[in-house]
Amino acid sequence: MLLNIRLIASTFLMIFLAELGDKTQLSIFALAANRKAFLSVLIGASGALILTTLIAATLGAVIGRFIPETVIKIIAGIVFIGFGALTLYEAFRA
């Protein structure tokens, strides 16, 4: 198992940019500001991100053995479109 530096860098950049300003980051900001416990919030948030990433990477590796990558991308796209449609529906309904 060789490490692919380009894949590591592109994954880091994609996740880093996607996470900037999202609700998780804002929640961490609020927790650190209210609790004045930087290290505790950092450890808790880092642990949660590591665990969710571990679960996603493991499931991706296992499922990727049985389902082609293209099919997984199509399903992911459909799910994202579904969430977007649901969000728009809820916004217009309110």
Explain what this protein looks like in three dimensions.
With 94 residues, the protein is mainly α. The chain has 2 domains: 63 residues, no CATH class; 27 residues. The protein contains 4 helices and no strands. Helix 2 packs antiparallel against helix 3. The mean pLDDT is 91.
**Low-confidence parts, pLDDT < 50 over ≥5 residues?**
none
In angstroms, what separates the terminal alpha carbons? Answer: 51 Å
Order of helices and strands: HHHH
Shape: flat
Assembly form of the protein: single chain
Number of strands: 0
- How would you sum up the major sheet? none
Report the radius of gyration as a whole number of Å: 17 Å
Structural class by secondary-structure content: mainly alpha
Strand content: under 5%
| Average pLDDT metric | 91
The total number of structural domains is 2
**What proportion of the residues is helical, as a percent range?**
over 70%
Helical region count? Answer: 4
